[in-house]
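User: Before I run my own analysis I want an independent prediction to cross-check against. Here's the chain; please return only the structure tokens and, at the end, one sentence I can use as a sanity check.
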Amino acid sequence: MHTSKENLSTNHTSDLKFYQLALDEAKKGLSEGGIPIGALLVNNDQVILGRGHNKRIQEKSAIKHGETDCIENAGRQKATVYQQSTLYTTLSPCDMCTGTILLYKIPRVVIGENKNFKGNEALLKSRGVEVIVLDNPETIQMMETFIQENPKLWNEDIGEESP
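Assistant: Structure tokens:
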């Protein structure tokens, strides 16, 4: 389901505000020399539980994607808290991040873009997760530029061999 600014439901008018904070995290990661992917976890459309960005390069980590860093930064939560939350992410979640979303039963994911990389959105949807893709032009351009300028880092991040 692709959703544009104009089509956001009235129940989720805060999506653009929260998405901007996830985008700010992506920009922070880029400014640190990392991969520009950011995320935000919000409970009940009100409380920011955690925020994070891809830190694989900065921390020499194998698994610190934007989504996993965000959930780690949210700390230990009761299962019901995750089940009442929305994850905002600048890029379509990879298999690892999709698994984390499913494990914690996060029911809603708002994605900035899936043009440069389409993760396992089909699996999320098949398991009842509401998936909203914003097609945010700024995010699309930022990722496109990063991938063109850093193909080896990008391929490493998604578990692919470099050409």
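Sanity check: Residues 25 and 110 are 15 Å apart (CA to CA).
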